[in-house]
Structures are given as C-alpha cells and as structure tokens.
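For the sake of clarity, the format in which proteins appear in this thesis is described at this point. The fold follows as a row of integers, each naming the local backbone shape at the matching residue. One such record is shown here in full, so that the layout can be seen directly:
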Amino acid sequence: MRTTTLNNRKLTAFRLNENLIERLKVQAKKENRSLNNFVESALMRIVYRKPNATTLAAIKDAQESDDLENLDLENLETFIASL
C-alpha cells in the first residue's frame, strides 16, 4: 500500500459504521464540503479545542463563586424573559 503525504496530510483508512458515514455525507453536503474536509475539520475541533484566557477565567470564576444566580426552570416564559 502506498502512502501519500500532501501538505502534511497522510492517506489513512478507518472502519466506520455505515449509518455514521451516510450521516457524515449528508452533513458535509449541507455545508457544501467534501466528506474528507468535513470529517477532518470535526476531528480538529475536538482535538485542538482549548479555551482562551477569557474563557478559562470565566470557568474559574463560575466554579469558585458562591453568588451564582438560580434560574426558575419550572416556568419557561419566566426563564426566557430573564435572558
């Protein structure tokens, strides 16, 4: 088997569930992208997802804060109006 590398890209084979492949194809077509580009982009988002400094600070603040607002999810209209 011959391996081709273009722009640091390596030809690779995976075994995936047929239903998953079909769903990926449909989504890629909706976004007018090739299946390869769609899957590569999705995988890169997952692997390289790193929060920036602002997000990290917000996460830390939320985790350490005792002054978090309680939302009334029993009444959807009140919840939506509070946004």
Remarks:
- Residues 72 and 79 are 6 Å apart (CA to CA).
- Strands lie at 5-6, 9-10.
- The longest helix spans residues 18-30.
